[in-house]
Amino acid sequence: MAKEGYGTAGGKAAAAPACNPNWASLQEKLKGRKPLVSSASLDNGTRVTSALGKRKERPDNVPEAPLSTPSILAPTSEDFSLTEALAMDCEMVGVSFQGNKSALGRVSLVNTWGNVVYDEFVRPIEYVVDFRTKISGIRPRNLMKAKEFSTVQKKVAEAIKGRILVGHALHNDLKVLLLSHPRKDTRDTAEYQPFLREGRKRALRDLAAEILGAKIQQKEHCSIEDARAAMFIYQKHKREWEKSIMKQFRFNKKHKNKHRKKSMPEQTPKAS
Q1: Would the keyword Nucleus turn up in this protein's UniProt record (predicted)?
Q2: Domain membership flag for residue 270
Q3: Do 143 and 121 form a contact (C-beta atoms < 8 A)?
Q4: Is residue 268 domain-resident?
Q5: 149 burial via Cβ count (<10 Å: 0-12, 13-18, 19+)
């Protein structure tokens, strides 16, 4: 039997048939509860609205969920602006018949200082079969007041445009967002060569433990925590990382010019 689910169709909320026992069960569970805003609770006592770069005090009735190592992954400044580099992390839920297809359930963006500039739960276009709560931390109630996918996609695209995008296995995050980002502006901790072990990619939790001394992803994942970990890892190796990017850029440019010269046909002078 499929798990409780919630989704949208055509970008608008799709009301499930009244005979659907899963929907009826979900409504019954949530009956009488106070509605939750779509932004997730932050560890620094604030909440971020969907307007990027703005901050709002956390309501008293919203409980805090402390991060695993707050002292290590705490923001290093009060600056909530959109900086030159932003780190992104997404949490996915399962859609399709068996729930084995990933869809965006939550996305978080943090700036250079680790402050959250955008954090939203997302209502997938397809019906949610598996919330993957043990990993994603997402529950049915989180998606009841979630933003529509198209709205979130647009906000994220506007935020990361022209900026360096930091993250771990970013191709997965960009895939569920149906977005792309220039390779030259991407800093992926899963792909950076010095972080590989015997040519193999490593998990973000292993890199965070080794480089930052932070324990993350002990139980449910937190997209804010993971984005901060990726950003702080990048910041710690920024100088060497940027040098390698510049070196690669120069090599590619030189190789491209050399190939272009070889491919150009020789022009013979015209007879006078």
Answers
A1: yes
A2: no
A3: yes
A4: no
A5: buried
Query: What does R_g of the chain's alpha carbons equal in angstroms?
Result: 22
Upper half-sphere CA count for residue 205 (Cβ side, 13 Å): 10
CA 258 remoteness from chain centre = 38
**Residue numbers of the domain that contains 48:** 8-237
What is the Cα–Cα distance from 197 to 90, expressed in whole angstroms?
Answer: 25
pLDDT (tens digit, 9 = 90+) per residue, 208-254? Answer: 999 999 999 988 999 999 999 999 999 999 999 999 998 877 766 66
Count of domains for the chain: 1
Query: What does residue 204 show for φ and ψ, rounded to 5 degrees?
Result: -60, -40
In a domain, 2, yes or no: no
CB of 25 within 8 A of CB of 6? no
Q: Share the mean pLDDT of the chain.
A: 79
| Closest listed residue to residue 169, CA positions, set 93, 230, 238 | 230
Residue 222's nearest CA partner among 87, 106, 62 is: 106
Question: What is the mean pLDDT of the segment spanning 105-132?
Answer: 96
With respect to residue 198, please indicate whether it lies within any of the assigned structural domains.
yes
By mean pLDDT, which of 1-10, 66-75, 138-147, 176-185 is the weakest? 1-10
Task: Indicate if the pLDDT at residue 2 is higher than 80.
Answer: no
